[in-house]
Design brief:
With about 60 residues, the protein is mainly alpha-helical. It has one domain (about 1-55). Helix content is about 70%, strand content about 0%. It contains 3 helices and no strands. The protein has helices at about 1-10, 20-30, 35-55. Helix 1 (about 1-10) crosses helix 2. The longest helix is centred in the C-terminal third of the chain and has 20 residues, at about 35-55. The radius of gyration is 17 Å and the shape is elongated. The termini are far apart.
Length: about 60
């Protein structure tokens, strides 16, 4: 999620002089992330987490 927002902010190549300017720059792309993207990211996160826990670490 942050990657999408950061990509949008960096694409503008703008320096933000106030906290409010930066907040607006973050909120704007956040509001435009569609439900399909959110569901895809959620699925990938759950899948990655599940795969990590399936691996057994040998005890020594």
């Amino acid at each position: 999620m942050w990657g999408i927002i950061v990509h949008h902010i960096r694409r503008k190549s703008k320096q933000y002089n106030t906290v409010n300017d930066l907040r607006e720059a973050i909120v704007e792309p956040w509001d435009h992330i569609d439900d399909k993207t959110v569901k895809t990211l959620k699925y990938k996160a759950v899948s990655t987490f599940s795969i990590g826990h399936e691996k057994k670490i040998p005890q020594t």
